[in-house]
Write a structure and sequence with these properties.
Distance between the termini: 37 Å
Helix content: 25-40%
CATH architecture of the largest domain: 3-Layer(aba) Sandwich
Largest sheet: 7 strands, mixed
Number of domains: 2
Strand order of the largest sheet: 3-2-1-4-5-9-8
Bound molecules: S-adenosylmethionine
């Protein structure tokens, strides 16, 4: 079980962040996330979601299972938004026809670590599309008309001030008939879980989603039936 985010841990994290911010006054927050995770990996500490030590929290097919539940067919295009080291994306690639998987992230470092663990011949056959999130990549994804855009274990890494940019970017990839699935740890109030993770109330995400997709249908689906320490694993479902 995760350590409690005590006042002492908060203070250590805050000092680390302020030190980085002074050295990088104009960098976007997302660079801090990449810096912190890569530092951990380079120190050999390993990371549960990124790099060679990455393991799924539940099943490696969890993302695929939900995509299929929401109607994904092998000839559809699916986006793994914040794909990390392809921990859950590999099963999706395997299911889809070649060239139909898009994995995008805030850095290419994470998915390159994931590719290192896969058979190059298999990757060549599956022809996944991978890219760093920027206007050019988003335009290419949009042109492919994805049927489902899914973001797993990502929303929790986004500070409140960046939620509009994150959800707005996901919504920008949608077209009539598409669905976005955003996994998030749900709590009654916004709560910091660790130095890099937060849980959110569904009302906050619904408000942000509706700001970017005012005519969308918003609903919520449980990812698991369990609640631990007041935290549920939930999906925000946006349909256009
Ligand atoms: C815990 S990892 C999960 C990776 C992958 N979805 C999985 O479940 O294996 C969090 C991922 O979110 C990405 N991320 C963090 N902030 C993001 C943002 N604002 N937009 C898109 N991706 C982001 C990180 O780069 C990282 O790859």
């Amino acid at each position: 079980m995760a350590h409690k985010f005590t006042a002492r841990r908060w203070w250590r994290t805050f000092r680390r962040y302020i030190g980085w911010r002074i050295r990088n006054p104009f960098a976007p927050y997302e660079d801090y996330y990449v810096h912190t995770v890569m530092k951990k990996i380079r120190h050999g500490d390993g990371h549960p979601a990124i790099g060679s030590a990455a393991r799924p929290v539940r099943e490696h097919t969890e993302l695929l299972d939900f995509l299929r539940k929401y109607g994904l067919q092998p000839n559809d295009v699916a986006v793994d938004y914040g794909c990390g080291s392809l921990r859950l994306g590999t099963a999706v690639m395997n299911f889809l026809e070649p060239g139909k998987y898009w994995g995008v992230d805030i850095t290419d470092e994470f998915y390159k670590l994931g590719l290192d663990r896969l058979d190059p011949a298999w990757v060549a056959a599956k022809a996944p599309n991978l890219g760093v999130i920027n206007p050019a990549t988003l335009a290419k994804v949009r042109a492919d008309k994805p049927r489902v855009i899914a973001s797993w274990h990502v929303c929790s890494k986004v500070p409140e001030a960046r939620l509009d940019s994150y959800i707005g970017s996901i919504v920008s990839l949608m077209s009539p008939g598409s669905t976005a699935l955003v996994h998030f740890p749900e709590t009654a109030e916004r709560r910091q879980l660790s130095g890099l993770a937060w849980a959110s109330p569904r009302s906050l995400l619904e408000t942000v989603a509706l700001r970017h997709a005012p005519s969308a249908t918003i609903s919520f689906d449980p990812l698991t039936e369990t609640e631990i320490d007041g935290i549920r694993q939930t999906l925000l479902v946006i349909r256009t």
